[in-house]
Amino acid sequence: MSTAIAAPVDRLLYKPEEAAEALAIGRSTVYELMADGDLKYIKLGRARRIRRADLEEYVAKLAPLPN
Prior knowledge:
It is built from 3 helices and 3 strands; from the N terminus they run E-H-H-E-E-H. It is an alpha+beta fold. Helix 1 crosses helix 2.
């Protein structure tokens, strides 16, 4: 009998809490970024979800600190 190990599913939508974990920042910070318009999100009913592409776009826009 063999046991197949399923590969993790690459998410397309993240809950704010999951986005915070992926970005290694606090949940409150994610909500602030969404409220300020810095992090795009979509609404599905009452729920807010963040697309993976929008997370990647946010990270790409971050400016490195000067030396």
